[in-house]
Amino acid sequence: MDAGDALVLGTVLTSLCAFQLLFHFVSYWFSRRVSPGFNSLSSEKKIEWNSRVVSTCHSLVVGALSLSVSLFDEAAIADPLWGDSLLAKVNVAIASGYLVSDLLIIVLHWDVIGDKYFLIHHCASLYAFFLVLKDGPLQYIANFRLLAELSSPCVNQRWFLEALQYSKFSTANVLNGLLMTLAFFVVRILPIPSFYSFMLSVVGTEAYARLGLLTQCSWALSCVVLDVMNVIWMVKISKGCLKVIALMRREKASSSLRNGKLD
């Protein structure tokens, strides 16, 4: 094992331990002090709360690093298929450690937070990241895909507001809902056409042939699985957003009618 491999493995293990520590200890301590409503939650709600705190921390770290790689890492940008970047590999290693940690949490608390879609999502992502870390290709592609994590804070914030019993029509809930829908679309749905257009454009090139059949198929299959899930989630988020907007309009019309009668 060379120094690079040791660094990657060490990052995965450190990430795994850090996110476990965050879930079991830090989130409890921090949430009690920041949010008074946390103490009144049921034990089941606290488990999911802590899981989402971990998810938010992961998404902010990994999202910021992937944005840096996608915009400024010359080695990765110059050769999206075979560019070798230490920052890109470290970021994938951090994400891999988080996914293993979250899988452990999901399995241990399946009755509370078990979700087959997250299980599929995590396994597909881990398999793809394993190929990147093992053989070194597609580092830029992996980091480009990790930009999707930038939508997670808004998704988690929606759950936090609901757990704290904020009204669906509260300013915080409405603004977060709109931002969540926009962020999810921008980082998970909007890139889909250009991403698969790029994938098709490199088919037949020497760099693509060097990937080998296993990596080629894994790249395509894992991305398709993840994007199908993203589309499904986007539809659900959009329906929820439109439903809230419709209810707000109905409430506003009803309020105007009552005011009219009072006048």
Automatic annotation (TrEMBL):
Recorded topology in the membrane: Multi-pass membrane protein
Transmembrane annotation, as ranges: 6-30, 92-110, 174-196, 208-233
Protein name (record): TLC domain-containing protein
Entry's localization field: Membrane
Signal peptide start-end: none
Domain TLC residues, every copy: 44-246
Primary subcellular site in the record, as a coarse category: membrane
Any GO BP annotation: lipid homeostasis
GO cellular component: endoplasmic reticulum; membrane
Matches recorded under InterPro entries: TLC-dom (IPR006634), TLCD (IPR050846)
Superkingdom of source: Eukaryota
